[in-house]
Design goal:
This protein is an alpha+beta fold and 241 residues long. The protein contains 6 helices and 16 strands. A hairpin with a 2-residue loop joins β12 and β13. α1 packs across α2. Pfam families: PseudoU_synth_2 (PF00849), S4 (PF01479). Keywords: Isomerase, RNA-binding. It is an enzyme of class 5 (isomerase). Its EC number is 5.4.99.21.
């Protein structure tokens, strides 16, 4: 068993992101086996890492937002003249305002946990919490993403089988998916990964063109009745896994 940087171990344990871990360590808020550690210190994976109450309070105060992103907005930073989805997080666009009051501080450090193409709509998660970001987009993420996909064209004979398992993108085999027809021109996709424009590229490989794409679920969190262009806070009882 080899030692690793404590920030790396904290990220792997789902305690926070590596950046957050470094910030907590700098403030003296991290202990290993009861001893305060410094930036760059290492530990064994089986050692006990604990957070100070100040770090725990800071994590509790961080918010996660569910947005029904419209077509025409980019998930991350503004690009090509298109506005970022985060620009929609305003008091006027908050859905179900009675649950939690919007505070300007909730925009600080808010970042998308996963992408949703500019020409796609639906559930986009923005969070201040590195633990949630890692859960949704970490290399070992097990969170399912469900999409409703409208298509046109003629699918090749074994196309549905290939969509479920057997396609390769960028020289890498895709993980098994769950794909089924909902009606004559609409498919349901459940993915366990999120490569760039993955669904559109998968459909092209089997002879289909995507003309509409909407993400409706990430893990146990659904879009439900959230209107397009509006947002809400993740509820206290909601969990992605």
């Amino acid at each position: 068993m080899e030692k690793a940087r404590i920030s790396k171990l904290m990220s792997e344990k789902g305690m926070c992101s590596r950046r957050e871990a470094d910030a907590y360590i700098e403030r003296g808020w991290v202990k290993v086996d009861g001893r305060v550690v410094g930036l760059g210190d290492k530990a064994y994976p089986n050692q006990t890492i604990t957070l100070d109450k100040m770090a725990q309070a800071r994590q509790t105060a961080r918010v996660t937002i569910i947005l029904n992103k419209p077509v025409g907005y980019v998930s991350g930073q503004a690009e090509g003249g298109y506005r970022p989805a985060a620009s929609l997080i305003t008091p006027e666009r908050q859905f179900d305002k009675g649950r939690q009051r919007f505070e300007p501080s909730h925009l600080r450090g808010l970042a998308p946990a996963g992408r949703l193409d500019i020409d796609s709509q639906g559930l986009l998660v923005l969070t201040q919490d590195g633990r949630i970001a890692k859960q949704l987009i970490g290399e070992d993420s097990e969170v399912e993403k469900e999409y409703l996909v409208r298509v046109e064209g003629r699918m090749m004979g074994n196309g549905l089988s290939l969509l479920n398992h057997g396609l390769t993108l960028d020289g890498q085999a895709l993980r098994p998916a769950e794909v089924s027809w909902l009606n004559d021109d609409q498919l349901k996709f459940i993915l366990h990964e999120g490569k760039k424009r993955q669904i559109r590229r998968m459909c092209e490989l089997v002879g289909l063109k995507v003309v509409g794409l909407k993400r409706v679920r990430m893990g146990n969190v659904t879009l439900a009745d959230l209107p397009v262009g509006q947002w809400r806070y993740l509820k206290g009882h909601e969990r992605f896994l």
